[in-house]
Structure formats: C-alpha cells, structure tokens
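Input record (Table S2, row 155):
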Amino acid sequence: MSQQQAKRPGEVAVEHPQTSDASLQYIGRIHTPWEQREDCPRQGDPDGPECQIEIFPPWHQALAGLEPQRSLEVLYWLHQSRRDLVLQCPKGRQQPVGTFALRSPVRPNPIGSSLVTLVGIDGRMLRVRGLDCLDGTPLLDLKPARAVFMTDLRS
Ligand code: SAM
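Output record (S-adenosylmethionine complex):
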C-alpha cells in the first residue's frame, strides 16, 4: 500500500487490519502506457490505447478457448492504493462519500475490474483495449464478459 497519497479534507481513514483471509496469486502483469496514476483514464475506454496483458507460467494453457474480438472482464490489484479510507472526497465532489458508493481505487481490497476487447493473442501476451491501470499492475483473473458467456451458454 502506498501511504504517499495524502488525505483530502473531510476524508476519514481507519486502521486497516493486517491479517488476511484469502491468499491471492498474481497470475500476470498488465502493460499500459501510463506511469503515473494521474495519467490513467478514470475508466477504460473501448477506443483507448492497445495494452498488453502478460500471463505468467504455469497459467498459459488457461488461455485456451479465448477468441479475439470477444469481451473479457479483467480483474487486477490496484497495488499503489492506500486501503484505509472509509470516507473519500473524489475530485469534483463537494461532500465525502463512502468507499462502497465509489469505484475509487482506494478500498480495503483494491480490486479493479474493466471490460476490455480482446484484440489479439500472441502466445502468453493478450492485446486488449479498455484498460485504465498503471503500467505493471498485477493481474488477478480473466473471465469472459457475462453477456457473451450467457449467450454462448444458450447457443
Ligand atoms: N475500472 C476499475 C474499476 O472500476 O474497478 C478501476 C477504476 S479506478 C477509478 C482507475 C484509477 O485508479 C486510475 O485512473 C488511476 O488513478 C488509479 N490506478 C490505476 N492503476 C492503479 C494501481 N495499480 N494502483 C493504484 N491506483 C491505480
């Protein structure tokens, strides 16, 4: 967790418990053009720049069945987020808002998700559009977009 992010007036932090209930494994790394949080889009744009998702061994075989032009849900760990705010003052809001009413990266478990278009697959690298995270963001999971998955189930 980065404690570099200063609190804004009105924001409230709590003591984040250091114990953990789940053990997550990073299954890859996301490569994007953005080196600083302030350069990232607030949400991914389907017409945004092409980014790469690198899959670590031993998970390459788990890509079988993925097809270009499909929509994928990408889950990632917003590793530079502080995790202790319960009330936040995002830019443009006058009053503090509860963390669970926001899609802010600052949350107890900083999981981000984006719906991306799979542009192509080059071995262990996926080319996608629609991301909003920093270069080097750890990858947690990939799933077919729910709508596409449900359509495939019915056909
Ligand atoms: N699309 C995801 C969601 O809705 O769950 C994330 C949205 S969050 C508002 C996106 C912002 O998080 C970016 O604009 C950037 O400021 C910040 N961010 C991106 N990558 C990050 C990282 N690895 N660690 C911490 N903050 C990050």
